[in-house]
Amino acid sequence: MDERWTLGVLGLYTVIYLVVFFVHKSQIDRQKDVISSMKSFMEVFKVDEVKKFVELKENRMIMQFEDEMKNDGNLREMTEKIVLERIEPLKKVYIDQMGEQHLEMTARNS
Q1: C-alpha span between 80 and 86 (Å, rounded)
Q2: Distance in Å from the first CA to the final CA of the chain
Q3: Taking the complete model, does pTM exceed 0.85, yes or no?
Q4: Rounded to 5, what percent of the chain is helix, strand, coil?
Q5: How many CB atoms lie within 10 A of CB 95?
Q6: Rounded to an integer, what distance in angstroms lies between the CA atom of residue 32 and that of residue 39?
Q7: Could you report the per-residue pLDDT of 4-48, keeping only the tens digit for each?
């Protein structure tokens, strides 16, 4: 009877071991699938290439803006007009505060 118990326990251990082995093997196979899919994903979307693309796009936008700034004569005229509009009230305030002695100096600069 002792031999039967020993064989029964050994058989039970063997069955449990095989079940655990197949469960682990299936988990390992799933991990391999995940790893291979991650590798293929990383090959499709190379991070360095995406970074280069973004930098090129930003540089293109900056260059377009600079070209628009160079070619836009209206912008220059508008800024000169705005600056002159802002300077005139300041000149008046300065003349009022400093008096007639500086009137000659400001009249020469305008």
Answers
A1: 10
A2: 122
A3: no
A4: 95, 0, 5
A5: 15
A6: 10
A7: 889 999 999 999 999 999 999 999 999 998 888 888 777 777 777
